[in-house]
Amino acid sequence: MKILIINGPNLNLLGKREPEIYGSQTFEQYFEELKSKYSIIDLEYYQSNIEGELINKLHEIGFYYDGVILNAGAYTHTSIAIADAIAGIKTPVIEVHISNVHARESFRHHSYLSKNCKGIIVGLGMDGYRLALESFLK
Ligand code: DQA
After folding, report:
1. How large is the ipTM?
2. What share of residues in the chain are helix, strand, coil (percent, to 5)?
3. What is the CATH number of the domain that holds 48?
4. What is the reported pTM?
5. Per UniProt, where does substrate bind (predicted)?
6. pLDDT tier at 72 (50, 70, 90 boundaries)?
7. Atom number in ligand 1 closest to CA 10
């Protein structure tokens, strides 16, 4: 099984960025743990701060991989283009947010992406990526 985790803008700063909201672990640390725990899965990670690069990556893998776990960061709340890319590919996408976006500013309450995703995991911290992986395994 081939799964890609995609993180969008500012998520390269995990560990340093607002640790009271996002925790103090870097994504690279977390990803290594995940990879060793789920060694049966062909698991990859991609991060970009650029909207078009996220779309290019979805197009590139979106007809071959078994699943995408996507945290599009703030593009979640703004990007019709990423929503269209998710709708246009075959690979199912699970949307993940580390923080509970519904307990935060109202501009974070709406996602353009959710309706095109298989499911959504919100507010469970970094563990959300693992839960999405478990869901793909089933
Ligand atoms: C986030 C929530 C977004 O509102 C925010 O812009 C992020 C991270 C999360 O994982 O909680 O960058 O997607």
Report:
1. 0.99
2. 45, 20, 35
3. 3.40.50.9100
4. 0.97
5. 71, 77, 84, 98-99, 108
6. very high
7. 12
Cα(98) to centroid of ligand 1, in Å?
A: 7
Q: Looking up tokens 């009271």, which residue turns up?
A: 20
The residue annotated as part of the active site, out of 22, 45, 65, 112, is: 22
| Residue 125 Cα distances to 23, 29, 55, 98, angstroms | 8, 14, 25, 4
pLDDT, one tens digit per residue, over 94-123 is 999 999 999 999 999 999 999 999 999 999
**How many domains is the chain partitioned into structurally?**
1
Total count of residues recorded for the chain: 138
38 is catalytic: no
Q: What is the pLDDT of residues 121-131, one digit of tens each?
A: 999 999 999 99
Contact 113, 80 (CB under 8 A): no
Residues of the domain holding 63: 2-137
Tell me, yes or no, if 22 is annotated catalytic: yes
Structure tokens at 90: 């075959």
- Kindly name the residue from 30, 45, 97, 112 that is annotated as catalytic: 97
**Both tokens of residue 126?**
């970094």
Q: What is the mean pLDDT of residues 17-40?
A: 94
95: its two tokens: 């949307």
Q: How far apart are CA 30 and CA 48, in angstroms?
A: 17
